[in-house]
Write a structure and sequence with these properties.
Elements lengths: L7 E2 H7 L3 E4 L8 E2 L4 E2 L2 H4 L11 E4 L1 H7 L4 H12 L6 E3 L7 H10 L3 E3 L4 H15 L2 E12 L2 E7 L5 H10 L3 E14 L2 E5 L7 E4 L3 E4 H5 L7 E3 L2 E7 L14 E5 L2 E10 L5 H16 L4 H19 L2
Parallel strand pairs: 4-5, 5-6, 6-7, 9-15, 15-17
Antiparallel strand pairs: 1-3, 2-7, 8-9, 8-10, 10-11, 11-14, 12-13, 16-17
Helix pairs in contact: 4-5, 7-9
């Protein structure tokens, strides 16, 4: 796997996971983690370095400790020297394990941060990979609005002035939550999952033409906003085109590809008199129903087909 073009500081990971610093080199503040993969260096301590990625955080747990404990002091020194000489971002000891003197010496010799946690190895690795995947995720920024409607993350896209912000404020007033207005930062946190957030500078603000910028959190309260949300549905808003055929039954399921992830999508025409907030609420609930295995359009189509089959059976 290629390293991410993004990075996260080692200091922020130490703060997030409450890691104890056993050794802190002079260049500590400049150390950054660039991969969401983590390594347990059992094979490396045994001398096998083929395909070794020195950019990964190295986790030493009970198994590695029990293995290296069998070595003589000289062999331990040689093993730790080979490992620490790779310019590692950090070595983390789990379960409160006391580092070997040879580990301490080589960490200081090569300037490798030595950290410790009371957590178990598997718990730390799982939590740290999840955190790194979010921090280092592939990302894009899209002009749009992201709202949470009945637990569904709905991304509203469309030309400027089509009514995205006005619809979002109506949804907030109806009890739903705003994640981002105008600019939505979208991260690919897994092969099938996109998560959206707002740039910090404009977080919780929304622009309404004729009024200006308003602070949604101040006006509607803390329950009206959310920092991040998974994107479950994309809705394209466009001005009603009388020459265009819009979906009537909903049998043809649209998908929008974003960061190589296929997200269910709809195109909703906008014209005076249409209550977009209510339409989007229904779209969110319908999308949730589909995920739970119920598709109203298919059920309706099956009923119509069954009716005509029965009619053909009645006619002579």
């Amino acid at each position: 796997m290629e390293n991410s073009p993004y990075s996260v500081s080692l200091a922020s990971l130490i703060e997030e996971f409450n890691l104890e610093i056993l050794y802190k080199p002079e260049h500590f503040d400049s150390i950054r983690v660039v991969t969401d993969e983590i390594n347990r260096p059992g094979l490396q301590l045994a001398g096998f370095f083929d395909h070794f990625d020195e950019t990964r955080l190295q986790i030493i747990g009970m198994v590695e400790t029990a293995f290296i404990e069998r070595f003589t002091a000289e062999k331990r020194m040689a093993s730790f020297e080979k490992l620490m000489s790779k310019e590692l971002p950090a070595v983390i000891l789990t379960r409160g394990i006391e580092p070997f003197p040879e580990c301490n010496d080589m960490a200081r010799k090569y300037g490798v941060p030595l950290l410790r946690t009371q957590e178990t190895t598997s718990t730390l690795i799982s939590a740290m990979i999840s955190s790194l995947k979010v921090s280092l995720a592939q990302r894009i920024t899209r002009h749009g609005v992201l709202v949470e409607v009945y637990g569904e993350g709905v991304l509203l896209l469309g030309d400027s002035g089509v009514g995205k912000s006005e619809t979002a404020i109506e949804l907030v007033k109806r009890g739903h939550r705003l994640i981002a207005d105008d600019a939505v930062e979208i991260k690919k946190v897994s092969a099938k999952t996109l998560v959206g957030a707002s740039p910090e500078m404009i977080r919780h603000y929304i622009e309404l033409r004729g009024i200006g910028v308003v602070d949604v959190r101040r006006i509607f309260g803390m329950g009206s906003i959310k920092t991040t949300e998974k994107i479950d549905l994309i809705i394209h808003l466009e001005l009603w085109d009388v020459n265009k055929q819009y979906e009537r039954l909903g049998l043809d399921e649209q998908k929008t590809s974003m960061l190589d992830v296929e997200i269910p999508s709809l195109t909703i025409p906008v014209k005076p008199g249409r209550n977009l907030a209510v339409i989007i609420e229904v779209a969110a609930m319908n999308n949730r129903n589909k995920k739970l295995g119920y598709n109203a359009a298919r059920e309706f189509s099956d009923k119509i087909n069954q009716y005509f089959v029965q009619q053909e059976g009645v006619n002579p």
